[in-house]
Write a structure and sequence with these properties.
It contains eleven helices and 14 strands. It is an alpha+beta fold. The chain has three domains: 96 residues, no CATH class; 182 residues, no CATH class; 102 residues, DNA polymerase B, N domain, beta-barrel (OB fold (Dihydrolipoamide Acetyltransferase, E2P)), CATH 2.40.50. A six-stranded mixed sheet has the order 1-6-7-5-8-9, sandwiched between helices. The protein has a five-stranded mixed β-barrel with strand order 10-11-12-14-13. Helix 1 runs antiparallel to helix 3. The N terminus and C terminus are likely disordered.
């Protein structure tokens, strides 16, 4: 089995809901569900300009850009007046019919209270402001890696995760909605507060800590600050994401903005400037990534796993086994080298549809996919449903097992 290199693009997070065919997001929220203060805050965040209005009653808002002068919204400042619901309804309908991208984003934030994570890249432009099509893919790749690093940091603190915690971190990204990349220069992700606020908070803390550690290294030459930054969520995965974001640009920025409807998280600033990174930071980020990879220790574990593949070079002696991890470690599979007796036990357990339990150390080399120092291999009883599933897997994949396998190694 070949493992995907870290640099390979991850599976896309969910697209912007307005881009999905038949999406129900095309309908504006009901006026009764909208807080006028929240709507005004979102309009301001997304570049709309307040241009007068009756003080204390409503504000007149126009969209960003040169073409916004012909459109305006009347947004009440509160529900204290009889016409407040009517004005809100008219404003929401106007937003739903507007061709301005920011109008769609405002409606989304109203429908699903979300913290917003924004990326900007300062990239050279081509003729008439055009940009190479690859820029958008580079930005999306960097954004996905950044979000994954933030999600991993909510599971545990580590300088390097490798394959650990990836399933639970990827599941956390299922709820994240992503807008369109504007010419490969900017992108916004909407992280629903109900499921993803810990991700947004952790990522915000990690970005600030990474910036401080870079500044410390560039001022003193020491990398010590990165060691302490691990506790706030900085990792090799984050430094690699930042390298991807900054590489090929004149600079990049990331900002986390809190959902107005949910308020500011504890111990976080109400408003913060975007965290900036420059090409001059790349050598430090790469050095930090190497340091994290080198220094992350192996982990003692007791794994319960189902044997999925076995291979050895002859009829006797030690052999390699791949286990699908059921419990004991936050990785999907591990490869373990077993002596002759342990290999025989694993084979017999597999043939009768039982997983095995094994002690060892999960090695950071190779991404925590290899167990070394294996001992105490023994079959484990499971319920009938799990045993039936294991037996079905065996019957469907007989060509993967035992010494007759002539394909790739079990890793």
């Amino acid at each position: 089995m070949r493992h995907r290199p870290y640099e390979e693009p991850l599976r896309d997070v969910r697209p912007h809901p307005a881009d999905e065919a038949g999406a129900h997001w095309s309908q504006p929220p009901e006026p009764a569900e909208v807080d006028p203060t929240v709507l005004s805050a979102l309009l301001h965040r997304h570049g709309w300009q307040r241009r007068g209005g009756a003080p204390g009653r409503y504000g007149r808002w126009t969209p960003p850009g040169p073409g916004g002068g012909g459109t305006s919204l009347l947004v009440p400042e509160s529900r204290a007046f009889p016409d407040s619901d009517d004005l809100l309804g008219e404003a929401l309908v106007a937003l739903s019919r507007s061709g301005t991208p920011s109008a769609r984003e405002v409606l989304l934030s109203l429908a699903v209270p979300s913290d917003e994570i924004r990326w900007w890249r300062d990239v050279p432009t081509g003729p008439v402001g055009a940009a190479p099509w690859t820029l958008e893919e580079q930005l999306r790749t960097a954004a996905r890696q950044t979000l994954l690093a933030g999600a991993l940091a909510t599971r545990a603190c580590a300088g390097y995760y490798g394959a650990r915690h990836r399933r639970s971190a990827a599941a956390m990204l299922e709820h994240v909605l992503v807008g369109s990349a504007a010419g490969g220069r900017s992108l916004t992700a909407f992280v629903p507060v109900s499921e993803g606020r810990p991700l947004a908070v952790r990522l915000h803390q990690a970005l600030c800590a990474a910036r401080e550690a870079i500044d410390y290294q560039r001022a003193t030459g020491g990398m010590d600050a990165f060691d302490g930054a691990v506790e706030t969520g900085v990792s090799r995965e984050l430094t690699e994401a930042l390298v991807t974001l900054v590489r090929g640009t004149e600079g990049a920025r990331i900002a986390v903005e809190w959902a107005p409807a949910a308020g500011v998280p504890e111990d976080c600033a109400a408003s913060a400037e975007p965290v900036e990174f420059s090409p001059g930071d790349l050598p430090v980020l790469r050095e930090a990534g190497v340091r994290f990879l080198r220094d992350e220790p192996s982990v003692p574990v007791r794994i319960t796993g189902a044997v999925e593949r076995m291979r050895r070079s002859g009829p006797r002696g030690e052999g390699a086994v791949r286990l699908r991890v059921i419990a004991g470690a936050e990785v999907p599979h591990v490869r373990v080298l077993l002596d002759e007796e342990a290999y025989r036990i694993a084979g017999h357990a597999h043939l009768v549809g039982l997983p095995v339990r094994v002690h060892g150390r999960l090695e950071s080399r190779g991404g925590f996919r290899r167990l070394t120092g294996a001992s105490g291999v023994a079959p484990v009883q499971v319920d009938e449903a799990e045993r039936d599933r294991l037996m079905k897997f065996l019957q469907e994949n007989l060509d993967f097992f035992e010494e007759a396998c002539s394909g790739d190694d079990c890793d």
